[in-house]
Amino acid sequence: MHTPDEALTLRDPQALLAQTLRDWPAGSDLWVFGYASLIWRPEFAADETRGAAVHGWHRALRMRSRINRGTPERPGLVFALVAGGSCRGVVYRIARSRAERELERLWLREMPTGVYDPRWLPCRTPAGPVRALAFTLDRASPAHTGVIPDGEMLEILRHARGRYGSTLEYLLETAACLRERGIRDREIERLERLARRIEAR
């Protein structure tokens, strides 16, 4: 979840919503792919939930957060879906009859600044493929951090805190919900081990 001050540059969220609606398959229900906080705090009622995988994108703790998980003086981090690799998560189906209303609410949460690039991605699920809306991040975005050395990551995990809590809490909450669903993410597991250094102190 992000707020207008989270991004460095502002794109028109309504124009991006209009384009997303134009690309929405006619007559179909809305599918949404969750890969981090949308798994443990979706904030909408889904008519169906499935485990899912996307290829060509991976979950990465590389998006700056200046309000929710950090401050402008000490930015935190949140996960983003970045090109390359693959990602396991969850897809939610929302019936067409109420999907536009739910999508507008979701847009207020995820897209107040237009920082994400919304995409309709093919997702594999146990019950067959679906095309789901996913919130991705371009590496060229000013909000993308690039690779973060472990020393810098430790400093962020120790100190970055915003109005919804710390980056560390956000990381651990995401790790716990993935583990509960049987989803392995080696980078998150590595970051958890890194975070234990904080607890050890």
How would a textbook summarize the main sheet? Answer: 3 strands, antiparallel
What's the gyration radius in Å? 16 Å
| Order of SSEs | HEHEEHEEHEEHH
What is the approximate shape?
A: globular
The end-to-end span amounts to 30 Å
Beta-strand percent range:
25-35%
* Count of beta strands: 7
Q: What is the residue-mean pLDDT, rounded to a whole number? A: 91
Query: What percentage of residues falls in helices of 4 or more residues?
Result: 25-40%
Uncertain segments: 1-8
Report the total helices.
6
Helix-strand makeup class: alpha+beta
Identify the strand order in the major beta sheet: 1-3-2
Question: What keywords describe this structure?
Answer:
201 residues; alpha+beta; 6 helices; 7 strands; 34% helix
What would your notes on this structure say?
The protein has 201 residues and is α+β, with helices and mostly antiparallel strands. It has six helices and seven strands. The protein has helices spanning 13-23, 37-40, 96-110, 150-159, 167-180, 186-200; strands at 30-34, 48-65, 76-94, 117-123, 130-136, 161-162, 165-166. Strand 6 (161-162) and strand 7 (165-166) form a beta hairpin. Helix 5 packs across helix 6.
